[in-house]
Amino acid sequence: VNGDVASGAGEFLRRDSGRGVLTATLAFDALDLARLATPAWRAMQRSFEPDGGLRAQMTGMDIDLRVSASAASLTQGEFTQFAGALSVRDDLISVDIGDATYEGGSVQLRYKDEYKEKASGANISFRSEDVDSALISDKFLLGPLFPRGRVSMTGDFNGSSGTLNQFWRSATGKFTIASQAGAIPGVELGSVFEPSNSIQFMALTADGAPGDTYDTLNGTFNLSNAALIVDQLSIAYPRSTLQIDGIISPINGSVA
Hints:
Helix content: 10-25%
Radius of gyration: 22 Å
Largest sheet: 14 strands, mixed
Strand order of the largest sheet: 1-2-3-4-5-6-7-8-9-11-12-13-14-10
Mean pLDDT: 80
């Protein structure tokens, strides 16, 4: 597959109804996941358009493809001990990373996209445990307010079908994060309690500051209308604890 060698088995069946079924299990030592996923993702972005795209091609076929790899490379790093699956059934496409190691921690991810004539929608859910968020933040450009340390996260979001931009603009859902012994670049208690900060709008960042080291960070957030609403956020520092409720703007580093 694109020069990467795998061992495994597959079969193609045709049911009595005439619908085709393609199943395969492939095991790689090394897999260039970015090179494999890019054309597949582009096809999925068109899969539920009225003119058909991948959906038109797969109308008469179910697909169940399972892939494992000792190492699966991405543009932004590498998975190890990777296990994933692609499923196409009727008007539902799902992509699963059932288990993988990334930046020192474990990662699971699921993307589902369903098309119906009167309604369509997508879901993205993920779970990670004990990943190095400093490396992830640098590789994915997550912005100044993302904690840097060992982090565990969960997320579950629903949005519209289509491109990722379309999905996130319409997405609603919940995100949780827990971390120990880390820092948020630019977030220092002195800048939070500056006299110039109003009660309604508080600056979290101090330009150029490395950020105070926290002992623990625990937060729950709701995503709605492209805004990150803080349900509960507690950051425990050695001499004080910062509790935050409101709406965080990742762009300018403020909370309202």
